[in-house]
Design goal:
about 350 residues, alpha/beta, QueA-like, Thrombin, subunit H, six-stranded antiparallel barrel, 7 helices, 17 strands
């Protein structure tokens, strides 16, 4: 049994970062050696010196769309919030509806004075509904005019600049949340890493519902994992195979890149577009990922379980307690951790 309670830690609320730093690269960086448990304290811009020539850095180039929209129920004028999670096809979207109790099958919500008409066609547990969207024109353009960046519920400050919830390399539109480990990178850091000889590869995983879903079962292994769509193109697959054959270190940027790589690998990589509901927790044997750049994750979340699988639960909880003591900034706009696999820190 994987006890959910075993992944808890005490986090003072004031350490939850509410706004991004002015300069992305000045975040703090905790380096945790997964082999020794040793910890050192750096800044994110030090990643240029920490990574080695011939390392392979894998980044998720998904792009967040302004997925949070507000509208009025057609019959009562009650305010309803919809978070668009996934395009199911035929203009039907999986959404988080708040408050869901006001929504029934057949409920019509008018958004932006009728620019979008959302009709509920199915209702499920945990706030999930399916809505058919009626609109004229191009949906993303309408969302850019009406929608908000879908910040996680623990961020209470308004985001003044929506680009700060995007990585500088975001390209493929489709996420309801940012792959936040990548938020620390600047174009200058990426260029410096390339110049050093670090190979940078891009995969895509569209971040969905799981970011917002807690683990509510005592035995975490019984948690129902969300499904997310991912893609690796043929050229990237070939370069990953070459890197593995040469014994190069493969470093994932963020847990979404980990989930993509570990889902896609089957005696090698090939071009693939598929859905994954992989759940990585202690006991999992990694096939691809050697090291990881990540943020600090919520207590008892699937993400803290994933990093514990890579670095060891005791190492992770010790590192998190150290981060609290040293007043690191936590979660999406917070500081970073590098889980290193070298023989010494």
């Amino acid at each position: 049994m994987i006890r959910t309670e075993d992944f808890d830690y005490n986090l003072p609320e004031e350490l939850i970062a509410q706004t991004p730093l002015k300069d992305r690269s000045t975040s703090r960086l905790m380096v945790l050696n997964k082999n020794t448990g040793k910890i050192s304290h750096k800044h994110f811009y030090d990643i240029i010196d920490i990574l080695n020539e011939n390392d392979v850095l894998v980044m998720n180039d998904t792009k967040v769309y302004p997925a949070r929209i507000y509208g009025l129920k057609e019959d009562t004028n009650a305010l309803i919030e919809l978070l668009l999670l996934k395009d199911l096809g035929d203009n039907v979207w999986e959404c988080l509806a708040k408050p869901q109790r006001r929504v029934k099958i057949g409920t019509i919500i008018n958004i932006g004075e009728g620019k979008i008409r959302a009709i509920c066609v199915a209702k499920f547990d945990e706030g999930i509904c399916h809505f058919r969207l009626e609109y004229k024109g191009i949906l993303i353009e309408i969302l850019e005019a009406l929608g908000e960046m879908p910040l996680p519920p623990y961020i209470h400050e308004k985001l003044k600049d929506g680009s700060r919830y995007q990585t500088v390399y975001a390209k493929n539109l489709g996420s309801a949340a940012a792959p936040t480990a990548g938020l620390h990178f600047t174009n200058e850091i990426i260029e410096a890493l390339k110049k050093k000889g670090v190979q940078i590869l891009f995969v895509t995983l569209h971040v969905g519902l799981g970011t917002f879903r807690p683990v509510n079962v005592e035995d975490a292994s019984k948690h129902k994992m969300h499904t997310e769509w991912y893609h690796i193109d043929a050229k990237t697959a070939s370069l990953l195979n070459e890197a593995k054959a040469k014994g190069k270190r493969i470093i994932a940027v963020g847990t979404t890149s980990v989930r993509t790589l570990e889902s896609a690998y089957d005696d090698g990589f090939k071009e693939i577009a598929d859905n994954t509901s992989i759940f990585i927790y202690p006991g999992y044997k990694f096939k691809v990922v050697d090291a990881l750049i990540t943020n600090f994750h919520l207590p008892k979340s699937t993400l803290i379980m994933l990093v514990s699988a890579l670095a060891g639960k005791e190492n992770i909880l010790n590192a998190y307690n150290e981060a609290v003591k040293e007043k690191y900034r936590f979660f999406s706009f917070g500081d970073a951790m590098f889980i290193d696999n070298s023989s010494e820190v």
